[in-house]
Specification:
By secondary structure, this protein is mostly helical. It is built from five helices and no strands. It comes from Streptantibioticus ferralitis.
Length: 115
């Protein structure tokens, strides 16, 4: 994503490191660069606000649940792979042992044409 305006720090770089910023997992210098960008880029500031709100909601609703230690790492790795376009969003069942979604039935409402 890019707002189309030139910035010292590119929008895609800011968004790639947004969760590190939200989780205070970056150096002060990097935090300062992102804060400067938010000050001049409304779309990135909006995305930051949205992700911050989602994070607060998740913490409020799920903050007391025990999470397996490697889950965060797996989730972050999957997010990075999706952002990089190496994989698509999750299509397998969310819970191990849950039945897989049914395969899509062919659309028989329209006549098939052959070439």
């Amino acid at each position: 994503m890019s707002c189309g305006n030139p910035h010292e720090t590119d929008c895609s770089e800011v968004l790639d490191h947004l969760y590190e910023y939200l989780d205070s997992e970056m150096s002060e210098g990097d935090r300062h660069r992102l804060e400067e960008h938010f000050g001049e880029c409304h779309p990135c500031l909006e995305k930051y606000g949205l992700e911050q709100a989602v994070k607060k909601l998740v913490k409020r609703c799920c903050g007391h649940d025990d999470v397996p230690g490697d889950l965060r790492s797996k989730v972050l790795t999957r997010i990075e792979l999706i952002r990089a376009g190496e994989i698509g969003p999750v299509t397998e069942p969310a819970v191990e042992g849950a039945p897989a979604p049914a395969a899509a039935e062919p659309d028989t409402s329209r006549p098939q044409t052959t070439s």
